[in-house]
Protein backbone atom coordinates (compact mmCIF):
# COMPACT_ATOMS: atom_id res chain seq x y z
CA UNK A 1 0.00 0.00 0.00
CA UNK A 2 1.18 3.46 -0.75
CA UNK A 3 1.48 6.11 1.94
CA UNK A 4 -1.55 7.93 0.51
CA UNK A 5 -3.69 4.78 0.78
CA UNK A 6 -2.48 4.18 4.34
CA UNK A 7 -3.30 7.78 5.24
CA UNK A 8 -6.78 7.40 3.72
CA UNK A 9 -7.38 4.17 5.66
CA UNK A 10 -6.22 5.87 8.84
CA UNK A 11 -8.65 8.76 8.30
CA UNK A 12 -11.43 6.27 7.51
CA UNK A 13 -10.70 4.30 10.70
CA UNK A 14 -10.56 7.50 12.75
CA UNK A 15 -13.96 8.73 11.54
CA UNK A 16 -15.62 5.33 11.92
CA UNK A 17 -14.23 5.03 15.47
CA UNK A 18 -15.45 8.52 16.35
CA UNK A 19 -18.84 7.64 14.86
CA UNK A 20 -19.14 4.51 17.00
CA UNK A 21 -18.18 6.49 20.13
CA UNK A 22 -20.73 9.18 19.26
CA UNK A 23 -23.49 6.61 18.77
CA UNK A 24 -22.55 4.88 22.03
CA UNK A 25 -22.62 8.15 23.97
CA UNK A 26 -26.00 9.12 22.49
CA UNK A 27 -27.42 5.71 23.48
CA UNK A 28 -25.92 6.14 26.96
CA UNK A 29 -27.50 9.59 27.36
CA UNK A 30 -30.87 8.21 26.28
CA UNK A 31 -30.62 5.26 28.67
CA UNK A 32 -29.71 7.53 31.60
CA UNK A 33 -32.61 9.85 30.80
CA UNK A 34 -35.02 6.92 30.58
CA UNK A 35 -33.79 5.49 33.90
CA UNK A 36 -34.16 8.90 35.54
CA UNK A 37 -37.76 9.19 34.37
CA UNK A 38 -38.58 5.66 35.53
CA UNK A 39 -36.99 6.18 38.95
CA UNK A 40 -38.82 9.49 39.45
CA UNK A 41 -42.11 7.91 38.36
CA UNK A 42 -41.97 4.84 40.61
CA UNK A 43 -39.92 6.28 43.51
CA UNK A 44 -40.77 9.98 43.82
CA UNK A 45 -39.02 12.12 46.40
CA UNK A 46 -41.11 12.67 49.52
CA UNK A 47 -42.70 16.08 49.86
CA UNK A 48 -41.42 17.95 52.90
CA UNK A 49 -44.23 19.60 54.82
CA UNK A 50 -43.07 22.56 56.89
CA UNK A 51 -43.89 22.33 60.56
CA UNK A 52 -46.39 24.84 61.85
CA UNK A 53 -45.25 26.96 64.77
CA UNK A 54 -47.71 26.72 67.60
CA UNK A 55 -49.06 30.06 68.73
CA UNK A 56 -48.85 29.05 72.40
CA UNK A 57 -45.04 29.26 72.50
CA UNK A 58 -43.75 32.82 72.88
CA UNK A 59 -41.00 33.93 70.51
CA UNK A 60 -38.52 34.65 73.32
CA UNK A 61 -38.32 30.99 74.33
CA UNK A 62 -38.30 29.73 70.73
CA UNK A 63 -35.06 31.57 69.91
CA UNK A 64 -32.17 31.15 72.32
CA UNK A 65 -29.17 33.47 72.03
CA UNK A 66 -26.07 31.98 70.47
CA UNK A 67 -23.86 33.05 73.38
CA UNK A 68 -25.83 30.70 75.64
CA UNK A 69 -24.78 27.77 73.42
CA UNK A 70 -21.15 28.90 73.51
CA UNK A 71 -21.21 29.21 77.27
CA UNK A 72 -22.49 25.66 77.58
CA UNK A 73 -19.97 24.27 75.08
CA UNK A 74 -16.87 26.00 76.46
CA UNK A 75 -16.24 23.46 79.30
CA UNK A 76 -16.77 20.57 76.90
CA UNK A 77 -14.23 21.99 74.44
CA UNK A 78 -11.68 22.64 77.21
CA UNK A 79 -12.10 19.07 78.48
CA UNK A 80 -11.69 17.65 74.98
CA UNK A 81 -8.50 19.65 74.39
CA UNK A 82 -7.09 18.54 77.76
CA UNK A 83 -7.91 14.91 76.98
CA UNK A 84 -6.25 15.18 73.57
CA UNK A 85 -3.13 16.79 75.01
CA UNK A 86 -2.94 14.15 77.74
CA UNK A 87 -3.07 11.33 75.21
CA UNK A 88 -0.58 12.88 72.77
CA UNK A 89 1.87 14.56 75.18
CA UNK A 90 4.46 11.73 74.95
Number of helices: 3
Work out the strand percent: under 5%
Derived structural class: mainly alpha
Radius of gyration: 33 Å
Oligomer state equals single chain
- Anisotropy-based shape: elongated
| Count of distinct strands | 0
Helix content: over 70%
Order of helices and strands: HHH
What is the average of the pLDDT values?
87
Q: What is the makeup of the main sheet?
A: none
Low-pLDDT ranges:
none
Task: Compute the separation of the termini in Å.
Answer: 76 Å
Subunit structure: Heterotrimer of an alpha, a beta and a gamma subunit.
Subcellular location: Cell membrane
GO cellular component, one term: plasma membrane
Cofactor: Na(+)
Notes on the protein architecture:
With 90 residues, this protein is an all-alpha fold. It has a domain at 1-47. Helices cover 73% and strands 0% of the residues. The protein contains three helices and no strands. The chain has helices spanning 3-42, 59-62, 66-87. The longest helix has 40 residues, at 3-42. It is elongated. The termini are far apart. Its cofactor is Na(+). InterPro entries: Na_pump_deCOase (IPR005899), OadG (IPR023424). Belongs to the OadG family. This is Probable oxaloacetate decarboxylase gamma chain. It is found in: Cell membrane.
Amino acid sequence: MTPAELFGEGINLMFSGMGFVLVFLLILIGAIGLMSKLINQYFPEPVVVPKKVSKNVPNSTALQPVSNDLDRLRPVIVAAIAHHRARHSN
